[in-house]
Here is the input.
Amino acid sequence: MSTIIDVRTTYEAFANGADLSNLGEVEIYGWARTNRNSGQIGFIELHDGTAFKSIQVVYSNDTDNYDAVAHITTAAAVKVTGTLVMTPEMKQPFEIHAKTVELLGDVSEDYPLQKKRTSLEFLREIAYLRPRANTFQAVFRVRSVLAMAVHSFFQERGFVYVHTPEITGNDAEGAGSVFTISTEGTPHPYTDFFGTKASLTVSGQLHVEAFALAFKDVYTFGPTFRAEKSNTKRHASEFWMIEPEMAFTDLNGDMECIEACIKYCIRYVLEKCPDEMAFFSTWIEKGRMDQLNAVLNTPFTRMEYTDGIKLLQEAVKNGHKFDYNKIEWGMDLQSEHERYLTEEVVKGPTFLINYPKEIKAFYMRENDDGKTVAACDLLVPGEGEIVGGSQREERYDILKAKMDKLGNTQGLEWYLNLRKYGGCKHAGFGIGFDRLLMYITGIDNIRDTEPYPRTSNALKY
Amino acid sequence: MSTIIDVRTTYEAFANGADLSNLGEVEIYGWARTNRNSGQIGFIELHDGTAFKSIQVVYSNDTDNYDAVAHITTAAAVKVTGTLVMTPEMKQPFEIHAKTVELLGDVSEDYPLQKKRTSLEFLREIAYLRPRANTFQAVFRVRSVLAMAVHSFFQERGFVYVHTPEITGNDAEGAGSVFTISTEGTPHPYTDFFGTKASLTVSGQLHVEAFALAFKDVYTFGPTFRAEKSNTKRHASEFWMIEPEMAFTDLNGDMECIEACIKYCIRYVLEKCPDEMAFFSTWIEKGRMDQLNAVLNTPFTRMEYTDGIKLLQEAVKNGHKFDYNKIEWGMDLQSEHERYLTEEVVKGPTFLINYPKEIKAFYMRENDDGKTVAACDLLVPGEGEIVGGSQREERYDILKAKMDKLGNTQGLEWYLNLRKYGGCKHAGFGIGFDRLLMYITGIDNIRDTEPYPRTSNALKY
Here is the structure.
């Protein structure tokens, strides 16, 4: 009987000080990353997907069918039996001396991932194979671990996870174009199934507010959609959003939660994915880990929108050139303005707060000045905005007047009613999960953070 | 300065033996469940959504504005300050003696949840308010905890969580009708955005198989859609699915993982939600907790489909009446047949394995008998099928012949290619998350397990 091992648990056991020298015969399954040999001795870099690292398999004339093993090619699936041998004098702490190397799945000659180094653009065209490439081994493992960080953060704090619906009858947030849902082969494809027009959600916030008023602290975490043909590095048609909502909480409590959440997520990933983060820091964005560690030790700055505008105006006066150079109170900040504030002025994560009400959503709470709303955007160096939050308007009359003016009351009476039935102060925020992943990894195109990215004219897989 | 407390952490601290008698002034926010008084003394059952339990607030002539407090109605949002007083002689271990009770949000007279007992059908009509009702406090907290159980199970075992896409160009699984996605106001609404027809996913399996061949063990957990107008208690148009996939794994390994996963989830929920589970066991399905505990201690039975058919035929011969009474090899089992096997024959969770290939999906691995495929359905008492799994066909030629015959090769060349590029034995399964929740809670209508259920003609919120 041989012991079945994998790369992850073997490295973990080693790190925990376990004695691995007496395992007897071991058996491991994986794929050959490389295979090189010198006639007498050969080396297969065995990768099994359980860890960023590989294990070196050494074969020799003692190994069955040396010649066949020597012909195993990159990406072939193999089963190796042999002995785990400690190699304290080498870079890797152990290797496997193979008794047998069995080819389980060969690789046909048209395999597109032969080349050692390939561009991210090329890899994007083969979405179903790119998770095998180093960069995407790192990206998608961090994506998974980051998702777990999100759940752990909120569940440890007693938040209730709510699956808000993907299909919705209202697109009242007005967050841009929506996808419409229909059923083919019916006389009225848009309305036949649900009896009313249906679209894909742009946000679960309105739905989750109802749950905050029952469970106090809740969050959503699920897919969200935009039908915008914006062909930028930061936009996709389908992405995941995290939307927490907290009853009895104001804008300050909101910002405390955002800061704790972002720091928790960074710390969690740094701790669980040291190899992947070292890879990003070396190959994707130099010094990424140091920057993230610095963020952990910095209280996030809070800055009034009004003060931000003054700083931008001063910058222009002092000769700083923005593409959009006409800075005035009331404007919606462009990414270049946000990045100037967080990168040049504060040099760290920055909450911009209390925005003009005209440029923000109807559900945000109006401040006493009558001009601004209790909103906050979290801006981070290198990425710009990654979180948007606000205290919600809990006053029935003020909210109703706003919604009537916008003409979106119909279909949202229930949302208004929440203010009549034991309503209270509440606040929440939204984190674009894919953008958070871009921020943490340094990957600069959202298409390289999503397993099968969806953008206009891209639906190959 | 008063200490802000909530119901959950206060009960947790008490359970952990903390001394709560010296907290000084405490402050708590929540909603009045009930308010009764006798002129001299009054009691508010304060519920804050953080726990299934409430805290009793006692007010008296020592409390500010006794008369105003006495008029606070059910569901009103309140802030209470006072002292936490231990009550070892009472049912509840402590109560709050109020100094002040401040009304934060009143309740208008048309509040639909006045009545103490309301039917699940009635509550379904007010989806935005029903999370306040006891049953849904229990259901939706268990839903949240169960989702965390799923993530914990897979992440502890090193599985990588993959967000497979919701929008897809293929509906090749053939799992029923799909919703089509379009963009209004364009000449060709069905194809203009993506350049090809797009629909909502019915399964992430094909997409996630590609990731299993890179990461070995992976899982999806996300929304899935069916455009079927089946108006049953077990069908919804939108529901969440868990789809794990494991490389180098056969049907036996698949079943081991399913059994471990189901048991882990049950154990996790029983441990984290004792109050909620006690509620279900008393009010929704008598003895639910005992049945679940029994499942934890029982190895799941494995039964050949062929043997299942024989047992059903014998049952018919012995006078058992099924609605569909003509039992023959090759048939697709109805729910009544599945339940007979798991409830009457085995009296416990049962894997039915090796189904006729004609009634199962094209990607399942053909057994050597040429007639069956390496598939398993997990049947459980009271619910029927809750998991379906299979070993996948890894042999290129056999899979291609099957797909060519079905005519679904086009657009899925990449899926076939996985068999040419270091392919290997692999297996996976799918769990309907909402059905698993039904099974654990005893709730018998899927509409009562989803925050905002989507079925045909139901899109009110």
